[in-house]
Amino acid sequence: MKIQKAAVIGAGVMGAAIAAQLANAGIPVLLLDIVLPDNPDRNAAAKAGVQRALKARPAAFMDAGRAALIEVGNLEDDLGKLKNVDWILEAIIEKLPAKRDLWEKVEKVAKKTAIISSNSSGIPMHLQIEGRSEEFQRRFVGAHFFNPPRYLHLLEVIPTPKTAPDVLASFSQFAEGVLGKGVVVANDVPGFVANRIGVYGIVRAMYYLQKYGLTPAQADQLTGPVLGRASSATFRTADLSGLDIIYHVANDLGAATPADEDFTLTDTFRALVEEKKWLGDKTGSGFYKKTKDAKGKTVILNLNLDTFEYEDQGRVKVDAVEAVKGQPLAKRVQALYTLEGKEGDFLRGVMNDGFWYAAKMAGTVSGRLQDIDNALKWGFGWEQGPFETMDTLGVQTVIANLEAEGRTLPPLLQAMKDSGREKFYQGAEVVTPAGQPTPYTAPYLILSDLKKDATKVVKKTAGASLLDLGDGVLLLEFHTKMNALGEDAIRMVGTAHKTVQEMGYAGLVIGNQGEHFSAGANLPLILSQAQDEEWDELDAGIKAFQQATTSLRFSPHPVVVAPFNLTLGGGCEMLLHADHVVASAELYTGLVEVGVGLIPGGGGTKEMLLRFTDQITPGQPLLPAVQRAFELIGTAKTSTSALEARKLGFLRPTDTIAMNRDHLITEAKRKVLDLAPDYVQPTPRQDIPVMGDAAIGAIKSALYGMRQGGYITDYDLVVSNDLARILSGGVGNNRTAKVSEQHLLDLEREAFLTLAGKKGTQDRINHMLKTGKPLRN
Hints:
The chain is an alpha/beta fold and about 775 residues long. Helix content is about 45%, strand content about 15%. Helix 25 runs antiparallel to helix 29 (about 715-730). This is 3-hydroxyacyl-CoA dehydrogenase. It comes from Deinococcus ruber.
């Protein structure tokens, strides 16, 4: 059942975006849609879908070139092409007769081994395939993507009673490993998992919002990042999703579920949709409304639920939220759950309803508690699912609160009360929906689980840890804010190498499972040392960082770096020096130091020059390689995916791109074990060709034109001149010189120190720290 080619039927917003994600994964895909009346191009609908995906923001394609993997067609002329595909997914209109009619046609042409799927979010899967053959039904499995498919990790896989176990297993493996999705196996019930529980939470939050007289902005402060949930929280999420969508889904679920689940919408919510037609972002008005003030600045107005007027409430702050900011998630959740006043009453109502409903749904929407937790984390951006949150609070504490409110406990919570168990997850066990402990092993390495075994923590400091991954592989993990690379983290690199050698490890992985791999250097420290003129300390810090990055390449054991999300500045320099990189497909990496008036000082400038000159055919001019490195670094170019990072040169053709970020550490560990048996320690290069003043002249000529055209600032010129000197090799008018890596590193360090002492650089760093945006001085 290997899926080598796929077909998506329906080129609307969702269908085209799913086709794009298949193309991102390297899967050729046939995209079919109807023939539009009165349009001479019979494939116009499918073509429009591809164009929509190409223009989508955020981008649907990781590399626009991947659109070439999509073949367009129509359902009248090209249905026969389905005989050549291994997986067929429909994403057409949400009407049961239309889906049944489609499946009747598909069965006549699809090959007998193809897996068949529906992306329906509401129509039960078993109803769609009534009347189809037993063979068709056994190969049918629901595949509910969340929008946008590239960025939302969740994929609900929904077998019917007729789905063959091997089909379910094969498709789930493909979805997780090839498409990079977080797979949750859901039961074929109304709403499946995420929407069933998530929409219930939004409906109940609306009820408590009005009961306790909070504003949507106050409620979002309480149910957003402070609670470990998405920044869009509850009511901003509703606006983004579309109030009409929530309205219809809630009504449908209310009609399809028992009365005690209460999907009843408040009169105010109904009025927003039915009378005002305020549907959220799609109409410009919902719980919030964007407008501009007299100066043209964007202002977010908040809906007054009593008057239906929009009000400028300024920046809304909730004192209880401000009081716990900066604390670990567990402490924040515990503090907010016991909060007094109307904010506490609102939050406990929302949380307790969520806990009660998740427990009630255990066994109904899915047979595993971890699938319910994962559905909320992957589909709605929560850090913890409902059962994990109850573990944080103590399950017996939650049960006591629910009983104090007069609630009847769902069977799962009654079983937990009877057993006295405080956690759903305990050691290597998780309870079943019946409340019985069962062994649980994740299919990939989860560092937080690993660290529960104290023997796996080899060494730990405030900024970094060394963990034993098993099988002779050591992990270096950063855990500072944004994983910025300060003195602590840099020192731990040396400690890691020493530990590998002294304790007989096969090699080293550098990675983590935080929000980002690393946002780069510790800018506050650099600014402080420069302003205090602590030049010796700053010079020593740069040397230490250069030694740390280069040691990744020249140690006696293999080093594999596993970057993901933001991997900037010093983080990028780490991946550049690895023996091998296992990168997440969602990799936003670049050498961005010029934005703060510096140059890459940890070997990044050297490495890009070396890589690009190595690509020049012997006898050909070096200038294109120098210009390429200059443009990449001088414009602070950042990749928007790992595919683009490979094109830009940050990743090599031999480096690995993993679609599923969850698998990075596991794949990096496997790569270390592959490299270790035959690993030969490299030696630093002594033969890097440089152009001297000829390169500087060419770059300065281009810079002059850019400055005259207003494309760069005066201080951009200052930084660019120092960058040009490094890329020229700093060897005067010698056009045939060859220099060592250490020579280029010394030039980097000198330029870094010189620039750090300039007011223009210090102004840029200060502005970045205060605003998060670069200063154009």
